[in-house]
């Protein structure tokens, strides 16, 4: 009897058991004998020369074991790595884990204390004396690239790290005599990823063997990078990512604190622990987004796109971290979205400022690009008085055209934008909402209705190694899995892609159960420890399933192939005649003669009677390097009610129809979409990392940086279409970032749509009530707060 | 140092503590009750929520000395020792968690919410949990889980009582 397929079933997550009972192993939970606690003193200023650091008084404080300045580590701390030198002449400044001569952002580590407990360590920070000679803060990218601008790195002579250019088609011809040209300048505000678990590091040393536990997304990459930076041989360093409480890209990093904890353990011969407080984390965890986008779109009078020009300034912050320079370039392949066009140019300059470094944050380059093109499509629709869905229909790749080579040089393997859009408009009741919008406009309702559209795709499943190589990325994009079939027939799966909330343990067990025909409960998934999982490229870029899941699929197939040989031997049949289904091997045409995979496993363990030359093990591993990215897509529709008197925008309904290919676990997919939507909506409405004129981060706490609460978000309606990826045997695409990528433009488009009659063409993000209110009052003809001619909004009138 | 006498998840403790020691750190660092995590330092996130004499508090904004003579229930004290509490069960069944870092606090806050309002609407759940931030779920499944758990607890109030 064959069990119901696991792939596609809404299995409840096996990882929940520990998480809902408080038995989780967060890094900060780890206790070791003799454990010391680490605290960092951080720069209170944006940019300064350090003229003196005196840690002597701190050393004398009770309970303090050691205190060090950056100078104390100058010979061994090296420079934090940047693995993505995007151009040959990229300016790559040194980045000491603890500042030595100069600080370049508020929050940069300046000194470190090691003490018997976290309170003593924090107390001792107050006894450290640092003299700063203030230097000019560099905060505005457009100012920073002007001649004679104050410099972040004075020895480099420029604030520009690199310029990266992509060109396809004849862009001049596309813009020459174009009937419509739309030019816009959009700001992608700076965001703070804000994983709920603050970062934490524990490091121990026994002899010359080092173990690091870190709240990281990338135990494998971290190990290699730490070995490179510190000189500790890679095989003497084990990195463990225990239970990790969210990442969103922020834990895809090699951080100062990780390097310094390793050096402290080495220097002191004692285990150390550092746990960040939220307010130091907001200033020192890498930030995301932060671009100025200058966009030009040329189109025919019927709305067909001729060409697109993208000119970006991307804020690197003060230093280049692990993949900082490459993040905006991921957008180069996505600004064209789902649309056909004749010509496209992309230019991005990476700019240094005296702010916290930026790096990957959920979506990493693709949300920024998707925002740009989806906002432009609405502007184009408005210019031509077309429905925003209609202008998209006239430009998108139709389902018959796949595989499709895009203007940005990618091959989209599959998709069906029509089907997703049809489903979304039906669920949304698009026509009825348009009718209500017209009616509210007609009666000049102070609460206006807006409809926002986002028809998006994204590239995920990072990544084909040859493509990464062509982009000068410092590593490959493969993933590894191994399958161990135990003597009892139970199965251990080891994956190089470790989860921090994504549910790998459940989904990987589902894949294994189906492929090997074993019960779901008989599979255990191991990950997140270089001592257990020897190879891996870790978790980011929605790559786990599309790359790591396929590695697992292939490893399972290898197990079956091995077992077939044993089955043929035991059943005294030719291997060609062995069939495998539902965990059972049989001889074709002789269905009553079978051996279960568990029996084969036991026979292999005993090894009494195996085929000649058969190595007694079914264990198999596989490393999968994808041929192509995968391309989830979907149509998101947002209805927003904007109170024109207060500027308050409230999402009334939100429909997300996503096509993520084949679904392994619909429960997990829905959860990922929900969380992605929340983060994308948060960018549109709530979140912004704000620096004051002196370069101080003013959003250091959760009271200032507005991560949305349950009352700030709507109930979502999610649905799917399913167009399998053709580039992997599972047909899967990835879902980790789709919701975030799609939702930000849907929300902003809806707000602008509501306010079109007021002459509003844009509201900068986050669209706070004040900004919406100012846009209404400042955006219309004659700065009128009234909708169109002859309006009459009463209380919204008055001085603009 | 002041002495505190406190009962945590049914076990009595007498300890000398620094007056400034936060309840969250007392639970985690002194008692090893690490089921209650800490997510911020401004009492905004709610990850460290526990019950103090049955009322939800953010244990990062309560001093250990303030718990003297009181009864503390953490996520580790839920359930009857064998099965899951209805809230834990509902969070599992409704996929109301991903990374799970906010979950202990979310469940403890929800317990207090249901105590005050045994049959909350969606909006009442959202408002009741406003002080607990989640970065993974978008809250939708949390709202459903809490309402389902409230229903289950109305059906069998004895089980609810057993966790108090």
UniProtKB/TrEMBL annotation, chain A:
Pfam families: Ald_Xan_dh_C, MoCoBD_1, MoCoBD_2
Highest taxon listed in the record's lineage: Bacteria
Domain (Aldehyde oxidase/xanthine dehydrogenase a/b hammerhead): residue spans on this chain: 21-136
Keywords: Molybdenum, Oxidoreductase
Composition skew (Gly residues), residue ranges: 788-800
Spans through the membrane: none
Region (Disordered): 776-800
Single GO MF annotation: oxidoreductase activity
The protein's name in its UniProt record: Carbon-monoxide dehydrogenase large subunit
From TrEMBL, chain B:
InterPro entries: 2Fe-2S-bd (IPR002888), 2Fe-2S-bd_dom_sf (IPR036884), 2Fe-2S_ferredoxin-like_sf (IPR036010), 2Fe-2S_ferredoxin-type (IPR001041), Beta-grasp_dom_sf (IPR012675), Diverse_Oxidoreductases (IPR051452)
Pathway: Alkaloid degradation; nicotine degradation
GO MF term (any one): metal ion binding
Alphabetized SUPFAM superfamilies for the sequence: 2Fe-2S ferredoxin-like, CO dehydrogenase ISP C-domain like
Residues in 2Fe-2S ferredoxin-type domain copies: 2-78
Presence of keyword Iron: yes
Key words, A-Z: 2Fe-2S, Iron, Iron-sulfur, Metal-binding, Oxidoreductase
Listed transmembrane segments: none
Keyword Oxidoreductase carried by entry: yes
PANTHER family associated with the record: OXIDOREDUCTASE WITH IRON-SULFUR SUBUNIT
Protein name: Carbon-monoxide dehydrogenase small subunit
